[in-house]
Amino acid sequence: MRIALLSTNPQLYSTRRTLEAGEAAGHEMILVDYLRCYMSIASHRPTLIYQGESLEDIDAVIPRIGASKSIYGVAVVRQFEMMGVYTANTSQAISRSRDKLRALQLLSRKGIGMPITAYAHSTEDIDGVIELVGGAPLVIKLLEGTQGIGVVLADTNQAARSVIEAFRGLNVNILVQEFIKEAKGADIRAFVVGEKVVASMRRQGAPGEFRSNIHRGGEATKIKLTPEERSTAVRSAKAMGLRVAGVDMLRSNHGPVVMEVNSSPGLEGIETTTGMDVAGKVIEFVAKDAEARRGKTVQA
């Protein structure tokens, strides 16, 4: 099978491991910098050009789209879809997961546990927003933030007002969420492939740090999920329409609550921590799913 991996950085661990796993499984792997692709949006014959040549005879695409490059990256994935090429994660699913507010609304509709969350536009409604999530301590998040950047813990209602006013003064969109104190600065990353959790880890924040991101000094350990956590992770990925996803959850007093569903989850932390060949699981699933869907298309 000829599989294109969309990534802007060939040196990234996730990029290298995906290419290695694909080649080890006997597939022809092609690395495509999606920012260097350009498109011909012509009637009946949509095409993608990369390094001066048309990208043709591609059987499947694995998108690894950076959060800051979502708009163009999603457009490239959509173009592949217009060409009839299978994509591990669809353009619509990636867009859903990248829009934090929309993602939470979709999870809410499916009855999936998550922190009490408030969203408002006017600073005149700050007191109502704070009250809605149960008061301080509470968490304030930039909608466009990644890897823990743009996430603030406010210990008092006055501190929360000041942070919200500051963010809104910069005309940036924010979410206000209840603080899950009992999580004690730790979260769970469940790596979902298809409709299965193939690996999971617990990430503990550095001392004095409520954010558990490994990029911010957190430490990871292998963990066994409860049946409820496993089900929550799979249902969350499905709610986004993602076939490959990293689902971040907290253990609260009322069960698992989902913080984020990531459409391009990193492989280094999860593989190093669990010893699992997660890249191999992704390649295996993509090859089987692409072949199965192509068979259905031919029959139709």
Number of helices: 9
Order of strands, main sheet, comes to: 14-13-12-15-16
**Major sheet details:** 5 strands, antiparallel
* CATH class category name of the largest domain: Alpha Beta
Shape: globular
Report, as a whole number of angstroms, the end-to-end distance: 22 Å
CATH architecture of the largest domain: 3-Layer(aba) Sandwich
Organism: Plesiocystis pacifica SIR-1
Pfam family, one: RimK
InterPro entries: ATP-grasp, ATP-grasp_RimK-type, ATP_grasp_subdomain_1, RimK, Rimk_N, Rp_bS6_RimK/Lys_biosynth_LsyX
Domain ATP-grasp: 104-287
How would the blueprint of this fold be written?
Elements (H helix, E strand, L loop, with lengths): L1 E5 L6 H12 L3 E5 L5 E3 L6 E4 L2 E2 L5 E4 L6 H13 L3 E2 L3 H8 L1 H10 L7 E2 L7 H7 L5 E5 L8 E4 L2 H13 L4 E5 L7 E8 L2 E9 L14 E4 L4 H14 L3 E9 L2 E8 L5 H7 L3 H22 L1
Parallel strand pairs: 1-2, 1-6, 6-7
Antiparallel strand pairs: 3-4, 4-5, 8-11, 9-10, 9-11, 12-13, 12-15, 13-14, 15-16
Q: What's this entry about, in short?
A:
By secondary structure, this protein is an alpha+beta fold. It has 3 domains: 2-96, Rossmann fold, CATH 3.40.50; 117-179, 2-Layer Sandwich (Dna Ligase, domain 1), CATH 3.30.1490; 182-262, D-amino Acid Aminotransferase, Chain A, domain 1 (2-Layer Sandwich). It has helices at residues 13-24, 70-82, 91-98, 100-109, 126-132, 157-169, 227-240, 268-274, 278-299, and strands spanning 2-6, 28-32, 38-40, 47-50, 53-54, 60-63, 86-87, 117-118, 138-142, 151-154, 174-178, 186-193, 196-204, 219-222, 244-252, 255-262.
